[in-house]
Amino acid sequence: xxxxxxxxxxxxxxxLILFMGIGSILVYLxxxxxxxxxxxxxFVLMVYLRNRNEIxxxxxxxxxxxxxxWLSSPKTGDQGKPLKYYCMSxxxxxxxxxxxxxxxxxxxVG
Length: 110
Ligand SMILES: [Zn+2]
Fold this sequence. Notes:
mainly alpha; binds zinc ion
């Protein structure tokens, strides 16, 4: 186990303790069924905030992402990054049907 993995697990446990602490306070303070409703919405909020926080802090660590595969769906990383096409004859990057430079219709995705 390397340093990054340990830091990640400590980070996870911290969130879990925080969630359980606030969760038990909610259950203690609120009557049924409001405790469950608020707990559920609180849980969703926590997961959302935690994932945002982790993507910022651990976004570059692909090994961790693979280890905790459920953290993000495999597609998340590709969104917002449009595919690039390159002409197979001259190598120019373009999005047309035919290359604007040499007219070739052969393209490759890069
Ligand atoms: Zn071309």
